[in-house]
Specification:
The chain contains 8 helices and no strands. By secondary structure, it is mostly helical. Helix 2 runs antiparallel to helix 3 and helix 2 runs parallel beside helix 4. The radius of gyration is 14 Å and the shape is globular.
Length: 161
């Protein structure tokens, strides 16, 4: 990852002196995973960006400045799969399997947002499935649910806070 991205997440996620609660750090890590999906095909589509912003604002309860910073950093980053472990380990620490499955569904929604599912997106999602310890059957269920709601604008009300 670029140094600016590492700096941002070190400040907001990994800082021992941070006054931010662990749940906030986990939401930021989950948001980063959403950005990874949008970048995985090397074509960040406006529909993907809009979906990420909607998810980050509504599901992760992040402020406007944090959302803007994350969106800016997402455009600057270069895909780096080795960075996923840090983000997924934060999510794994406290999130239930149901929350992790729901996160996978949101990530699938980002992948489907531009109307096409790229092989790179599928590959990344499979990596994330393993890192989040999501059983295959539930992972596929999340994918099917996301695909079903992709064209309808139907948003799940499950909260990841």
């Amino acid at each position: 990852m670029l140094k600016t991205v590492q700096s941002f997440f070190s400040k907001h996620i990994q800082s021992e002196n941070s006054n931010e609660d662990p749940e906030h750090a986990q939401r930021l890590a989950a948001a980063a995973l959403l950005f990874e999906v949008s970048r995985s095909d090397n074509d960040i589509h406006e529909m993907e960006k809009a979906r990420i912003e909607e998810i980050v604002r509504s599901k992760f309860d992040l402020g406007g400045e944090e959302v803007e910073t994350l969106m800016d950093l997402a455009e600057q980053e270069v895909h780096d799969a080795s960075s996923l472990f840090g983000f997924t380990s934060l999510v794994n620490e406290q999130w239930s399997i149901d929350q992790r499955v729901h996160l996978a569904e949101l990530m699938w929604q980002v992948a489907f947002a531009d109307g096409k599912l790229d092989d790179h997106e599928v590959h990344l999602m499979r990596k994330i499935q393993k890192l989040l310890h999501i059983p295959h059957k539930r992972f596929i269920g999340a994918k099917l649910q996301a695909r079903e709601s992709a064209g309808t604008g139907n948003s799940d009300t499950t909260d990841l806070r």
